[in-house]
């Protein structure tokens, strides 16, 4: 009789453990409805070298992109978890499930949309030609023929640069490229975002813009192509921070203006 009681006790204990395990698995699946790489956290990537959008300061990631990502995560009830990845392989990292999203000033293009799903734009910027302040030879895109142009590898500026010159110098950071404009015989021009160039001038770079932006880009948040549920949730959170004024506050903190306030009527959108 004693042996029977022991056997029944062990059987009931085993069933309780199995039931608990099943419940944990169900809860884990429910709590991680977006298929996050880390439960309870929104892990988003940026290069970390694109000041003032995403960069490291005192050992921490900061910038416009980082604060937008944190605000979106908060609206979703998640903890923000920003990470860095070189821009030239950032899409590959997303596909490999290293992080949930790219919030790193990646402009939407039809080619990139083959590998990822994109939200609505979270800001607009223009692709612009920059030269040294004392350079009076380059006054239009046509003047770049045969000149050495600096661009960030795998950026949206790479292909347009190739149509203007055969001499392209690749960089991992726009800041380094713009610095090289001021070094004799290093570069003739750089093509990057208007915002980045104007920020560099504010920080003492002896550079200037050439003409008007070549096109208008639509930086958006990228997630894995098959994770439309996460994309839609981020879109909803983005709209919420726009509606409640959080976006405007972050944008004006970094740029003294709202980066979504732009007249797109006559703009040539990069696709």
UniProtKB/TrEMBL annotation:
<keyword id="KW-0732">Signal</keyword>
<dbReference type="InterPro" id="IPR001638">
    <property type="entry name" value="Solute-binding_3/MltF_N"/>
</dbReference>
<dbReference type="Pfam" id="PF00497">
    <property type="entry name" value="SBP_bac_3"/>
</dbReference>
<feature type="signal peptide">
    <location>
        <begin position="1"/>
        <end position="19"/>
    </location>
</feature>
<dbReference type="InterPro" id="IPR018313">
    <property type="entry name" value="SBP_3_CS"/>
</dbReference>
<protein>
    <submittedName>
        <fullName>Transporter substrate-binding domain-containing protein</fullName>
    </submittedName>
</protein>
<comment type="similarity">
    <text>Belongs to the bacterial solute-binding protein 3 family.</text>
</comment>
<feature type="domain" description="Solute-binding protein family 3/N-terminal">
    <location>
        <begin position="41"/>
        <end position="258"/>
    </location>
</feature>
């Amino acid at each position: 009789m004693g042996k029977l009681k022991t056997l029944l006790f062990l059987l009931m204990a085993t069933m309780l453990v199995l039931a608990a395990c099943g419940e944990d698995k169900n809860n884990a699946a429910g709590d991680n409805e977006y298929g996050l790489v880390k439960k309870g956290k929104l892990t988003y990537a940026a290069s970390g070298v694109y000041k003032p959008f995403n960069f490291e300061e005192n050992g921490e990631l900061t910038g416009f992109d980082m604060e937008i990502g944190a605000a979106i995560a908060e609206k979703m009830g998640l903890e923000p978890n920003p990470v860095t990845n070189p821009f030239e392989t950032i899409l590959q990292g997303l596909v490999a499930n290293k992080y949930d999203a790219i919030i790193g000033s990646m402009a939407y293009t039809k080619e990139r949309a083959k590998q990822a799903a994109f939200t609505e734009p979270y800001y607009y910027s223009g692709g612009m030609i920059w030269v040294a302040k004392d350079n009076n030879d380059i006054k239009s895109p046509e003047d770049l023929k045969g000149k050495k142009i600096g661009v960030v590898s795998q950026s949206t500026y790479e292909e347009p640069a190739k149509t203007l010159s055969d001499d392209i110098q690749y960089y991992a950071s726009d800041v380094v490229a713009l610095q090289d404009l001021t070094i004799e015989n290093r570069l003739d021009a750089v093509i990057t975002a208007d915002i980045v160039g104007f920020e560099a001038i504010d920080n003492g770079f002896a550079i200037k813009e050439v003409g008007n932006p070549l096109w208008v880009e639509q930086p958006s948040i990228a997630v894995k192509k098959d994770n439309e549920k996460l994309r839609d949730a981020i879109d909803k959170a983005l709209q919420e921070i726009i509606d409640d004024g959080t976006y405007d506050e972050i944008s004006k903190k970094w740029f003294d203006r709202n980066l979504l306030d732009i007249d797109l009527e006559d703009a040539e959108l990069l696709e």
